[in-house]
What does this fold into?
Amino acid sequence: MTTPIRGTLSSKGQVTIPARLLRELRLKPGDKVTFEVEGAGLRVLPSRPDILSTIDQFAYHDPTMPDAVAHVRRERGWDEE
It folds into this structure.
């Protein structure tokens, strides 16, 4: 079990995601997140595009697989490593 990380809810209902978690999850400004109610708790998950639907979209416009893979890597921040 991981150590809980606490945050504070603002008057507008906003919570800042701690920098450590942003780095670990490779989240950047503008990224989407998904909220899930789990029992009495709440889960916040990165909302990333499904890789197969992303590849299908690119295959429709550009059938070369390397371009689709490069797009997914950029979307997920994997090309920065």
Notes: DSSP finds three helices and two strands in the chain. The longest strand covers residues 33-38. The mean pLDDT is 78. The longest helix spans residues 51-61.
